[in-house]
Amino acid sequence: MTTITIRNNTRLMAEIDRIAEVAGYLWTKGWAERNGGNISVNVSSFLTDDERELPSLCPSVPLAEEVTELCGHVFYVTGTGKRMRYVAKDPFANGSLIRIAADGKSYDIIAEQAIAPTSELPSHLLMHNFVRRSGRDNRVVLHTHPTDLIGMTHCKPFLNSEVLTRTLWSMIPECRIIVPKGVGIVPYEIPGTLALAHATIEQLAHHDVVFWEKHGILAVGEDVIECFDAIDTLSKSAQIYFNARMAGFEPEGMTDEQLDGLVEPFGLEIYG
Ligand code: 2HA
Ligand code: ZN
Questions:
Q1: Of 71, 79, 140, 252, which is the most exposed, with the fewest CB atoms less than 10 Å away?
Q2: What integer is the mean pLDDT of 156-178?
């Protein structure tokens, strides 16, 4: 009998390294106090058939809502209560690989250690389920607590997707180019709840980045680095906005004409 050692899979480990790299960025950016934030990445395509069949390390865990688009899929998920600064150093001591059951109703932890997944796992899985059902190849769900972007959600006029998108887009051209679908907003909900997940899914129909009022950001994407980059670019825009306000002036922002002038050269789709 041969023993499978997941660390011998160089393609998987390259992806785990990228997740660890982003976890480190979240910490150094100041977006991940204590155990703030969580990451889940669909790594099924990096695994061999044998690796996908790895035995369970502990009893199956039932899911409150089934995820039929994810049957048999394997995810790397950061662990509950784990800190991003430690995920960066040792992703398999602070997260694990889980496999969704064939009926989509439960999951098993299959590698590398029996680390229980984030409290936000049920909502991450519903989001993965939703984006797969919509035919999008978004393997990543990333949740984090960027100080400046959360700060904006404490201001009532910004709790409007069009207003917030327009304000952030208009600070630098890159923002519209990198976040072409703009941002969605979910009014305050208790963290970790399915109510928060369902409200987020409604926003994911139109956006890849969603603001959770007075809590944080949730982004979906094809790639963990790109997911980080989108949030980082929005954060840059928020910093420009706040710096201008602190210097005592309302930033002018790019004009509609300047923003619309990006659409053709950068092949941007129009949303909204
Ligand atoms: O993982 O950020 O929203 C801790 C959180 C919950
Ligand atoms: Zn959070």
A1: 252
A2: 98
